[in-house]
Write a structure and sequence with these properties.
The protein has about 70 residues and is mostly helical. It has helices at about 5-30, 35-55. The protein has one domain (about 5-55). Helix content is about 70%, strand content about 0%. The N and C termini lie far apart (about 80 Å).
Length: about 70
């Protein structure tokens, strides 16, 4: 009698763990775990290149004249 609820709980928890693992694998395969830090630096670099192309000279981004 006592084994039935224990087995049921075991299989429910096993199913939840496998579901979480499958979701984790999906996230990795879909590229959800990629580095987002690189994106902000690429955006800043592109804006700096656009400013250079527009003015013909590089505009300092630090506020200190070069």
């Amino acid at each position: 009698m006592m084994a039935t609820p224990i087995l049921f709980g075991f299989f429910v928890s096993l199913g939840m763990a496998l579901g979480a693992f499958a979701f984790f694998l999906w996230a990795i395969m879909a590229g959800q775990m990629e580095d987002t830090e690189d994106l902000k630096y690429r955006i800043l670099q592109r804006e700096e290149e656009e400013d250079t192309n527009r003015t013909g000279r590089r505009i300092p981004t630090t506020g200190v004249p070069s």
